[in-house]
Amino acid sequence: MTQQDTEAARKTRTGHWSTYPTTKARRIDGFYKTHPTDAHARNVMVSALSSVLEKGRVLDVGCGTGDVTVAIHDAGYEVTGLDISKGMLEVFKENSGHRDIPLIIGDIFEMKAPEQKFDAITCRYVFSHYQDFGLLLGKISEYVRPGGYMIFDTFASEAIENASTLLDKPADEISSKVFGTLANFSDSELEKFCSDNNLSLVARHASAFFHRNPLFAAHASDIATYDSELAAHTDHPEVRKFMSWFQAAVASKLPSNLSGAVINIVQKLPA
């Protein structure tokens, strides 16, 4: 894909997001609030932030309805939310209640980075929409100070390779079934980009064991079947309780090739 094609695809994608109605934003928000995998992903994101930054200014890129942003605020950080969707930010305001959280509506690719950089950038559920992850990572790195951090989730291609070996199935077949058109990246790809762009990959670890895990989902006829079956059982309180415990106590310590989704911590090195 040429640079022109990549830019056209990006604009199409962001144009779609910018028109999200408030009704759709509320449906997405409801999923965030009820699905145990999402609750764990939020907690892991905040935990990853606190592991490298005790306090400071944080920009949550693609903040959506505020699930992660509010949690970061409540953990004691000075956080700002950025999203391209007016509908998402309307629901964000409902969720934030009395909290004083600044919001920015706009496309980060069309904006100029402020002179006062942030101490950290967080970004959840955005990178999986960019086949060229460096396009987004390079852009958000403009918003963070030297020595600051970028914390974001991605799907793990090493999990695809691991499942391919264990299940004796072609990696492409598993990837198309489990992730569809969603992007996934490996340790080596991120490390190569970081070394070429004055960044350092600090950590990369499992964040969501059950959500689109190739070892499980590859056995379903399609990802929709797997997702619907998972959702049907997570309605049970005891199942949800077990999943939450497993995600926190076990999955967060697993290597990235055993989980569909991972949390990445990248540091911007001094010039």
The top level CATH class name = Alpha Beta
Radius of gyration: 18 Å
Corresponding CATH architecture: 3-Layer(aba) Sandwich
Order of helical and strand elements: HHHEHEHEEHEHHEHEHHHE
Low confidence ranges: none
How far apart the termini lie comes to 31 Å
Largest sheet: 8 strands, mixed
Number of strands: 8
Mean pLDDT: 89
Structural class: alpha/beta
Share of residues in helices: 40-55%
How much of the polypeptide forms β-strand, as a percent range? Answer: 15-25%
What does this structure look like?
- The chain is an alpha/beta fold.
- It has one domain: Rossmann fold (3-Layer(aba) Sandwich).
- Helix content is 48%, strand content 20%.
- It has twelve helices and eight strands.
- Strands 1, 2, 3, 4, 5, 6, 7 and 8 form an eight-stranded mixed β-sheet that branches.
- The longest helix has 17 residues, at 36-52.
- The protein is globular and about 50 Å long.
Describe the secondary structure blueprint for this structure.
Elements: H1 3-18, H2 22-34, H3 36-52, E1 57-61, H4 67-74, E2 78-83, H5 86-96, E3 103-105, E4 118-123, H6 133-140, E5 144-156, H7 157-167, H8 171-178, E6 184-185, H9 187-196, E7 199-208, H10 214-217, H11 223-234, H12 237-249, E8 261-268
Parallel strand pairs: 1-2, 1-4, 2-3, 4-5, 5-6
Antiparallel strand pairs: 5-8, 7-8
List keywords for this structure.
single chain, 271 residues, alpha/beta, Rossmann fold, eight-stranded mixed β-sheet, 12 helices
Short description:
This protein has one domain (3-155, 183-210, 254-268): Vaccinia Virus protein VP39 (Rossmann fold, 3-Layer(aba) Sandwich), CATH 3.40.50.150.
